[in-house]
Amino acid sequence: MQDFFWLVRKTLKNTFRRKGSWLVYIGLPIAGVLLSMLLYGNSNGGPLRIGIVNEDGAEPIAQDTIQFVGSLNQVKLTTLTDMAEMNEQIASGKLDSGIVLPAGFANSVRGGHPEPVRIVSVKGAQATAYVKSLLDRYVGNIASIGRATQGDAQAFDRIYADYSKRSFTFEAQTLEDTSNRKDMTYQSIGFLISLMMFSAGGLTDIILKEKENRTFLRLLSSPVSSRTYVLSNVAVNFLVLFVQIVVALIFMKYVFAIDSGVPFGELAAVLLLFALTAISLSLLIVSLAKNSNGAGALQNLIITPSCLLAGCYFPVSIMPDTVRKIANFMPQHWLLDAIDQLQNGKALGSLGLELGILLAFAAAFSIMAIFRFSRNRDVRQFV
């Protein structure tokens, strides 16, 4: 054990002697969290800025429709004179979307077949779905009065007047929108996964570098065994990844105020389990490479595409079905899936499948690495 701890101290000292190592192993995970916050932090829960153009004049139904839109929660309504003004304000970012009540809108509603209300936006459904769903229901209710009265103007006006009084009341409660924090957590963890894998690869690559400069051969000429040497490298790997995880999660929660929706301990435990997978994969890469340059090329060839396919850089939900099926063969995918289920309220103990698959990946990579190491008898290249 004395040799083991001496090797751990030696590796840590040699690794973090350079200031750049602190930036790579500690600074980059923090930068990844900051980047995700910048990407998703601008999506706030402020009111929707909506402009409305009324081409139907002073018709009571059109005026009531405008009043209804203005009464919606989280909506700031601006009345505009024409389409040109609305398009200009939307293009300049002053408005999120615009609504146009076409000429003849009120008469079409009275007839039971309302003219479509145009909703214009450059932000897509994110800025229009909420208002459109409520507006369609409101107009549909009035149009049903028109269909029921079958062109009888007096009957329509009487029923519509009673409907407009709104003798019934609504009780509204505001729910917190957690989608934005989930996006930030997902992206932060995705960046952290990628950095953990590259960090594990870089630390394991020390084995090959010490073989190239003959340090490894000199160590083996001492009482230190090759097994102790490799285990000390694994311990250093796990310790550095542990620090990366803790620092990243602390900055997420207490510095950048990103609420992941998952208890700190559970999130750290799942990431530490993945750390074993990352270390095992890095050992497999080292066992396949003949030198440090070859190991670096293999890392880039394996880690970057697998992180891309697994959804570390952007959600896998936007990918084609074929790519989603491929993602099931990536350990990163199962980690992200486990975190997503934890955010949706599942207990850590109910994630046996996801955690078991991560352990299976770690075991498989370790067995293959041990097999490769044991098959090679040239200590100048492999342990």
Describe the oligomeric state of these chains in a short phrase: single chain
List the strand order in the largest sheet.
Answer: 2-1-3-4
Main pleated-sheet profile: 4 strands, mixed
The overall average pLDDT, rounded, is 83
Query: Helical amount among residues, as a percent range?
Result: 55-70%
| Structural Rg | 30 Å
Our measurement of the CA-to-CA distance between the termini, rounded to an integer number of angstroms, reads 19 Å
Please report the total strand number as a whole number: 4
Residues in β-strands, percent: 5-15%
Which sequence of SSEs, written as H and E, runs from N to C?
HHEHEHEHEHHHHHHHHHH
- Broad shape: elongated
- The helix tally amounts to 15
Uncertain runs are 377-383
Structural class: mainly alpha
Description:
Helices cover 67% and strands 6% of the residues. The chain is mainly α. A four-stranded mixed sheet has the order 2-1-3-4, sandwiched between helices. Helix 3 links the parallel strand 1 and strand 2. Helix 1 packs across helix 10, helix 11 crosses helix 12 and helix 11 packs antiparallel against helix 14. The longest helix is centred in the middle third of the chain and has 34 residues. The C terminus is likely disordered.
State the gist of this model.
With 383 residues, the chain is mainly alpha-helical.
Primary descriptors:
383 residues; mainly alpha; 4 strands
Chain-wise SSE layout:
Blueprint: H1 2-15, H2 19-40, E1 48-54, H3 60-70, E2 75-80, H4 83-91, E3 97-101, H5 105-110, E4 118-121, H6 125-149, H7 153-165, H8 179-212, H9 215-220, H10 226-255, H11 264-288, H12 292-310, H13 321-327, H14 331-343, H15 352-375
Parallel strand pairs: 1-2, 1-3
Antiparallel strand pairs: 3-4
Helix pairs in contact: 1-10, 2-8, 2-10, 6-7, 8-10, 8-11, 8-12, 8-14, 10-11, 11-12, 11-14, 11-15, 12-14, 14-15
